[in-house]
Amino acid sequence: MKEKAGSIKLLILDVDGVLTDGRITMNERGEEIKSFNVKDGLGLKIIMSAGIEVVLITGRKSMVVEHRAKELGIDEVWQGIKDKRALCKKIIGEKGLEKKEVCCIGDDLPDLAMFMEAGLRIAVADGVEEVREKADFVTDKKGGYGAVREACEWILKGKGAWSKIGFTEQSGG
Predict the structure, then answer these.
(1) Which end of the chain, C or N, has fewer beta carbons within 10 A?
(2) Residue 123 and residue 106 in contact, taking contact as beta carbons nearer than 8 Å
(3) Structure confidence at residue 12 (pLDDT)
(4) pLDDT score recorded for residue 3
(5) What is the distance between the alpha carbons of residues 161 and 41, in angstroms, rounded to a whole number?
(6) How many domains does the chain contain in total?
(7) Residue 140: inside a domain
(8) If residue 138 lies in a helix (H) or strand (E), which one and from where to where?
(9) Is 124 helix (H, G, I), strand (E, B) or coil?
């Protein structure tokens, strides 16, 4: 497992159920509201500062996701994606990476398609059984409650990079 983590150069994440708790809240105007965990945000900032690129792929479309990605410095956000496997394959090819250099984090059945293109597959604790069974690592924390932070730390510790991360008060996620 340490060897798998050591090879990672690209982290691909689902959003709903991974970066959020999977609930969709709408106000009276039909505007979507999502809650993100600040610890997950800091985990993503830390992993990006260590040279690992982050891509978000989600089956839904939401301006909230665009705003959160921009806030975190994530440039590549794909929304409304029906065929996650084809997109992963395309992204990996364009970046000139090998499957073993890619980690995907998911929680539900559509994410199994991403898992097929990843050398390291991570499921959040409350992911569906089929996803947890295919995962190399299952977080202790649930999606939206620090699972992404846990995964980021696990990857960086596996790479031997966690102790080299410089923390400042400006690092907030």
Answers:
(1) N
(2) yes
(3) 98
(4) 78
(5) 18
(6) 1
(7) yes
(8) strand 137-138
(9) coil
